[in-house]
Structure formats: structure tokens, C-alpha cells
């Protein structure tokens, strides 16, 4: 999550729409954290993960980032996932279904 929070910035609303988060939820996030951009991004990711449950795959997040032209952020996430896969011995770093919100790749809150 830190990679995203540190690099998405004000584009988080566009990312939210690409992830299928409703305008009502986007507004609620803005109201909950009116002056804290990093917390808005974190809350967006929590809302998205909770709404999609097992479909909250890193590949979906990367696709949404690319759809927003946030390719550098998508690349950073993919690089981090590859590094984690090498450390754990996994053959396919993108094969898992759901991301762990506590992972460093997507950040510990």
C-alpha cells in the first residue's frame, strides 16, 4: 500500500473509478480524511478490497493503475511482487488471488 500511497497522489479518485468504487464512496472517503491524501488512498484500497473480497487481485490493481496511465506505480508493484516471489520461492508471483493488505508491497497501515 505504501508504494501506491506514495505515488498515486491526487490521481486516487481516477484510480477509484477504474477499480469500480462508486462516487458516493469516493465522497465518503474524502469526508472521512479531508486533509490527508495518504489516508484517502489507504481507505480507497480498503474499500476496494472489502467490496471485491477474493477478487481483489494485485493484477486487477495493476490493470487499473495502467488504465489511469499510472504505469510507473504499476511497474513498482510488479517489481515488488517479483522480488517477493523470488524470496518465497513461488514460481508465479501474480498467481495469488487476493492481496494481503498487511504486506509491504501494498503497505502495512
TrEMBL record:
Region (Disordered): 87-109
Matches recorded under SMART domains: DEATH
Coiled coil location: none
Single GO MF descriptor: caspase binding
Signal peptide annotation: none
GO CC, any one term: CD95 death-inducing signaling complex
Listed transmembrane segments: none
Span of domain Death: 1-81
Annotated Polar residues bias: 87-100
InterPro entries linked: DEATH-like_dom_sf (IPR011029), Death_dom (IPR000488), FADD (IPR016729)
One GO term (biological process): extrinsic apoptotic signaling pathway
Pfam family, one: Death
PANTHER family: FAS-ASSOCIATED DEATH DOMAIN PROTEIN, FAS-ASSOCIATING DEATH DOMAIN-CONTAINING PROTEIN FADD
Record's protein name: Death domain-containing protein
Source species: Bos mutus (wild yak)
Amino acid at each position: 500500500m505504501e508504494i501506491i500511497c506514495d505515488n498515486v497522489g491526487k490521481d486516487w479518485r481516477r484510480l477509484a473509478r477504474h477499480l469500480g468504487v462508486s462516487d458516493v464512496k469516493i465522497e465518503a472517503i474524502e469526508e472521512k480524511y479531508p486533509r490527508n491524501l495518504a489516508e484517502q488512498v489507504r481507505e480507497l484500497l480498503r474499500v476496494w478490497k472489502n467490496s471485491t473480497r477474493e477478487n481483489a487481485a494485485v493484477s486487477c490493481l495493476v490493470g487499473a493503475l495502467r488504465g489511469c496511465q499510472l504505469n510507473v506505480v504499476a511497474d513498482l508493484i510488479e517489481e515488488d511482487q517479483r522480488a517477493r516471489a523470488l524470496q518465497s520461492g513461488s514460481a508465479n508471483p501474480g498467481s495469488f488471488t487476493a492481496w494481503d493488505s498487511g504486506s509491504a508491497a501494498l503497505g502495512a497501515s
